[in-house]
Predict the 3D structure of the following.
Amino acid sequence: MAGHHRYHLDQDGQSITVLHDPRRRRAEVWVNGKTVAVAPTPRHQATVLKGELPTLPPKPMVVTIDHPYDGDDVPPCVLEMDGGRYLMPHIALTPEEREPAERTPPARTPGELLARWRARRRDRRSDRRTRPGSGPRP
């Protein structure tokens, strides 16, 4: 499991970020870059952080960080606000934690494709001629 986890969601014009550090057993909720809630993370229970969005009037919110379902999995983080529940997406902290990008095949022009096809055809024909037993039958 990674050392830190970061979750981010833009909700009602507010930027909500959750930082979770299971090694130090600490979790924080940031709204627009300011710390709104801090709590220690219990070992065997879900972490619950309560805070408010800085709107008029202030909106209460509850962030719940559960334990991962699998040992190497990312713990799920849920934001509860205005009677709705939102699963917060996990954001990689470092480039090493990001998912590897799928390799895009190089672009091929029709001329390149035709040349490749001709080369393969030529190779197959030359293989047939040099193979033992592929000559004319008596």
